[in-house]
Design brief:
Structural class: alpha/beta
Number of strands: 23
Helix content: 25-40%
Distance between the termini: 52 Å
Bound molecules: glutamine
Radius of gyration: 25 Å
Length: 530
């Protein structure tokens, strides 16, 4: 049976519970355990698919096509383990199942209530990995004290009652703020939030304090005393230069050993050197590569989380320093901002706003010869640009943004139009792309076909492919079963690639995406001595 570690948050949100949990997961993995993670999101949305990136950051897509919270991206990047529909639980989704079951008459005349019916459904989902993982780390979104997260915390409380303290533990991540006027770190918010947790019936076994400076022993002792945990179980999570430093920082404080002791786990290996070596190698970088991510959610960096992480992985593996400029495609200075970059990424997106700036970005990259990677909507913009400016189809557009467009070079495919009449359905999750022999993409990946993740509705319209290819933009990758264009490239450009899929979702620090590596190398060319 699995062991369960619950990670809760106190005082404020955005404390990095996901990174903390994933870092502990990494340490446990290195001691020979099979680890998976679950994110509980207390909102009523059934999934993150329709949420505005400004409110919730990027939508992370799993291999099996779930549209999830960006924390699942962190879990995959740290654990190198595929997440799935089973790794995300939202309040909306839980209530949906309960209500559907009630409508089918499955509760046999009972009054359906939060306890036990909703909490039972949550617990059922917590147990989805019983036979597959030694340790399941469950992050409960939100902050203790929120109304929304109560059913999740209640289910977490019941888990210990059900399985006992040798199988279930609780880690509380809180903030210990520094007050400049008093020149002091304050523990009171942590005390209050632990009291709040106790009111719910959860006794934390470990308290991880986010802080911007080292926690002195006396502070740790104070927290230990007031919150009733051993002083050794009060840990410091100081702001790290890189999120990938966090496992080491926690390791130094003996997290792994404490978790082992609390849950009665015996380590079968200690492979942590893989991580320390990788961090050591990547911290010696000197040369900087400057990459522009051109989009419309540029004021919230989390909106492009996986893209910027994939760039970072590529930079770390090539011993390069990465500087990312988030360039707003509606900025009147767009072109001069792009001119400062060594390479340009045009990421995915939805909605009409900013579309002409994106098309202009694709044109600028083509004309300037700067390395360009267009992802999903980014590739679609590259196609529209080529159609308009090279193939002479002046009013070419995507029917997503101009439904009655006469030249829909990007369009819904025929059977999608039938599905709903206008919206069609999304193509989500992993699909295989087969590359044309001799294409840059086949060379970059070093194989004839790859499976990457998708999240889009519109496609390159096959009717226009001959005209595009004649104009120089070659389709070099297809989803063969339906002959959908997956990738495009120019032969006469140093590095210009568009992909309908999202390569960023498959990138991890230890296994960076080949496409991002090649893109970054192209950006660094001429700057590197070799
Ligand atoms: N909006 C486009 C589509 O649905 C692109 C989606 C994306 O970039 N993820 O096809």
């Amino acid at each position: 049976m699995s062991k369960y570690i619950f990670v809760t948050g106190g005082v404020v949100s955005s404390l990095g519970k996901g990174i903390t949990g994933a870092s502990i997961g990494k340490l446990l993995q290195y001691s020979g355990l099979k680890v998976t993670m679950i994110k509980c999101d207390p909102y009523i949305n059934v999934d993150a698919g329709t949420m505005n990136p400004y409110q919730h950051g990027e939508v992370f897509v799993t291999e099996d096509g779930a549209e999830t919270d960006l924390d699942l991206g962190s879990y995959e990047r740290f654990l190198e383990t595929r997440m799935s529909h089973d790794n995300i639980i939202t309040a909306g989704n839980v209530y949906k199942s309960v209500i559907e079951r009630e409508r089918k008459g499955e509760y046999l005349g009972a009054t359906v209530q939060v306890i036990p019916h909703v909490t039972d459904e949550i617990k059922r989902r917590f147990k989805a990995f019983e036979k597959k993982a030694d340790v399941v780390i469950i992050e409960i979104g939100g902050t203790v004290g929120d109304i929304e997260s109560l059913p999740f915390l209640e289910a977490a409380r019941q888990m210990k009652l059900e399985y006992g303290p040798q199988d279930v533990m609780y880690i509380h991540v809180t903030l210990v703020p520094y007050i400049p006027a008093a020149d002091e770190l304050k523990t009171k918010p942590t005390q209050h939030s632990v009291h709040k947790l106790r009111e719910i019936g959860i006794d934390p076994n470990m308290i991880i304090c986010r802080t911007d400076r080292p926690l002195e022993k006396s502070i740790k002792q104070k927290i230990a005393l007031f919150c009733s945990v051993p002083a050794t179980a009060v840990l410091e999570a100081a702001d790290a230069k890189s999120i990938y430093d966090v496992p080491q920082a926690l390791q130094r404080q003996g997290v792994n050993e404490q978790v082992h002791m609390l849950l009665g786990i015996r380590a079968t290996s200690h492979n942590f050197e893989e991580w320390t070596d990788f961090m050591k190698r990547s911290s010696s970088a000197r040369e900087t590569v400057r990459i522009a991510i051109a989009g419309k959610y540029t004021s919230l960096k989390d909106a492009y989380k996986s893209v910027s992480e994939a760039l970072l992985h590529a930079a770390m593996s090539a011993n390069l320093k990465l500087a990312v400029d988030y360039v707003d495609v509606e900025d009147p200075e767009l072109l001069s901002r792009l001119a400062e970059a060594d390479g340009i990424i045009l990421p995915g997106g939805f909605g009409n706003r900013g579309i002409e700036g994106k098309i202009r970005t694709a044109q600028y990259a083509r004309e300037s010869g700067k390395p360009f990677l267009g992802i999903c909507l980014g590739m679609q913009c590259a196609v529209i640009e080529a159609a308009r400016n090279l193939a002479g189809i002046k009013n070419a557009h995507s029917s997503e943004f101009m439904p009655r467009c006469k030249y829909p070079v990007i369009d819904l495919i025929a059977d999608q139009k039938k599905v709903t009449g206008k919206g069609g359905t999304m193509r989500l999750g992993g699909y295989e792309t087969a590359f044309t022999k001799g294409s840059a993409l086949a060379r970059i990946y070093g194989k004839p076909a790859v499976t990457e993740r998708h999240r889009h509705r519109y496609e390159v319209n096959p009717e226009f492919v001959p005209a595009l290819e004649k104009a120089g933009l070659k389709v070099t990758g297809y989803y063969k079963p339906r002959r959908l264009a997956e990738t495009v490239e120019y032969k006469n450009h140093p590095w210009y690639i568009g992909v309908q899929y999202h390569p960023e979702f498959n990138s991890t620090p230890l296994n960076p995406s080949p496409l991002f590596k090649a893109f970054l190398a192209a950006g660094a060319k001429g700057k590197q001595p070799k």
